[in-house]
Amino acid sequence: MPGYILKTVLIWIFMVVALQTGRSQHPKADSLFAAWPDTTNLPMDRLNAFYERFDPFLPEERNNPEAMRWGPHVQEGLALVKQLGKKEYLARFTVLASVVFYVQQDFENACPLAQKAFDLSLELKDYNSSSTALFILNICVLDPVGISQNQLDNNYERITAEIEGYTVDPEQVYLYSALAHHHYTNSDFPKALLLFQKTIQSYEVKGKTNQYYYIDAIAFTGCIHAKTGNYEEAE
Q: Contact 118/133 with Cβ under 8 angstroms?
């Protein structure tokens, strides 16, 4: 399949999943959005409100109008992160900046920011941002101004090293999901199945079985069983 067609298909699939899974909204979305631009609040309080709105940053929110209203404020938020020395927020705001460009189909800016966010996220162990950055980088590899396949493969090798041993660690659940999808796309179903199962276990440990990644892992586990002829498990 030509690259431009595959990129279109991937974006379309993502948008369908996003629309199906979510017009979900952060329970404090409106109060947090009101706190951010209010300059009578302390700068750190404003920044914390912004971060809280996107902690975690879930896949469906890339097409959520409520979430996207924050888009014009992301660069100011990123500048405030640097000004206040809030390094632990740096990967999240960098990936948010990448998402804004991605939504605008501006891959020339989205792709290098996504790679920068990915690098920062592993350094800071902000695995939620790692997963979001990787989604964008999977699109970028199909674009002339994006990244190379070798660079993308290297990113997945770095994730594999990060979760070596595949023990169930709820903090790494975003990495399990990202790597599972990578193996699934490459038809390496045994590795994908193992990681989807780790994703499921992580959310069951946390008692959050209504979350996007949990539901996604259940669905793809069924797909793997169906593809490998294990129809009883697929049901």
A: yes
Q: What's this model's pTM, rounded to 2 decimal places?
A: 0.83
Number of residues that make up the chain: 235
Please name each of the domains of the chain with its CATH number.
Answer: 1-146 (1.25.40), 163-235 (1.25.40)
- Distance, in Å, from the CA atom of 120 to the CA atom of 181, rounded to the nearest integer, reads 21
Of 157, 66, 86, 85, nearest to 118 (Cα)? 157
Q: Determine the pLDDT at residue 143.
A: 84
Specify the residue for token string 């997963």.
Answer: 131
Burial 11-33 (b: 16+ CB within 10 A, else e): eeebeebbeebbebebeebeebb
Q: DSSP assignment of 130-154, as one string?
A: HHHHHHHHHHHTTSTTS--HHHHHH
Q: What was the pLDDT predicted at 202?
A: 86
The single-letter code of the amino acid at 103 is V
Q: Which two tokens stand for residue 206?
A: 């946390």
The DSSP symbol for 26 reads -
